[in-house]
Amino acid sequence: MLQAKDKKFLRKEGQSIRSLFQIGKDGVSENLIRTLEDSLTAHELVKLNLLKSAPLTTQEAAAILAEETGSEIVQIVGRTFLLYRRSKKNLMGL
To answer: What is the mean pLDDT of residues 64-86?
Structure first.
């Protein structure tokens, strides 16, 4: 579980990164989960964007992906959200 100061740090870091994934009309698929797993391992912090055509709300998509990947929701703003999962290499220093 992330503490408030950790989330604050990650929100700041998340402002400068681009969305790596867009969730569209297909919603959350197995392929998306596998690819997100790889991205979380490589980057720890991943930004995702939900398109208007997506069948889920941003909160639903974030909750599903966080549960499936073992990550934590750092922030949800509009249709964009940040997920964090600490890697064994500990890139972010948390």
So the answer is: 97
Whole-prediction pTM: 0.91
- DSSP 3-state assignment of 41? helix
Report the alpha-carbon distance of residue 50 to residue 25 in Å, rounded: 9
In this predicted structure, what is the pLDDT of residue 1?
84
Question: Is the model's pLDDT at 91 over the cut of 80?
Answer: no
CA 1, 88, 40, 18 dihedral sign is positive
CB within 8 Å of 18: residues ≥ 6 apart: 47
Rounded to 5°, the CA angle 90-4-59 comes to 90
Kindly state the tokens that stand for 93: 């220093």
DSSP 40: H
Q: What angle do CA 23, 75, 49 make, to 5 degrees?
A: 20
- Integer-rounded Cα Rg, in Å, for the chain is 12
